Amino acid sequence: MTMTLPQIALLGTGNMSGAILQGLLQPHVQVSGIRATTRTAASALALVEQGVDAHSLEHDPGANRTAVAEAEIIVMGVKPYQILELLADLLDDAPPHATIVSVAAGITLESMESVWPGAVVRAMPNTPAQVGKGMTGLARGSRTSDDQAAMAEALFSTVGEVLVVEEDQINALSSISGSGPAYVYLFIEHFMEVARAHGFTDDQSRVMVEGTFSGAMEVLARSGKSPEQLRVDVTSPGGSTAAALAAFEQADLASIFASASAAAIARAEEMASE
User: Are 165 and 140 in contact (CB under 8 A)?
Assistant: First the structure.
């Protein structure tokens, strides 16, 4: 199914906005036009070689203003501390009806609306967006129309799943889907350590553990069953898996997850107030 999007400006093409760009370049996505800006000339050249209209601030300090001139969606892919200043710089060049989309943590809708007179959207994608398997949370500003919100949702659907939430849920969402990949990698690290302790080589440990995680997720995606149902299916009463799960429960794994999420939310709130 072909997806059609209007003119888009990507200001900065780091990990997140770079992933969005790759989503926009997929064959089934038709965009009226894409203009991207980068910090260095080398980065811009790499994008030009992919057919993107890209310009560097290194060669053209006014590249951002040129990029937004006809944009319907403007993705702010710069550092959080640069967002508000850049928005102010764009006021005379960007179309007033353009939708501003920020992927920066800690920059609130209210703060962006204090500078930009039109529509703003906060997006919190996670790193699997780099391979088209992202999970993005979206929160819309008070001046964002249904059509503008739908455009932002369509934009992020090019790199995975999208969940529309209220802004007061953004930090909680980030503590789960945003930080979540790091939790998974931590589990994989520890399971690999256990495998090595049992005499498996590094390569054997990696194949065994990564294969187990990816296989389990594929079963979850295809089976239509809940994680609880699948866990029960794997766990024979009185068996070795049941003994392992009992050890997890004894360590109060549920409380550990809750504490980790609370710590992530608290830090996100701190960053928003800094």
Answer: no
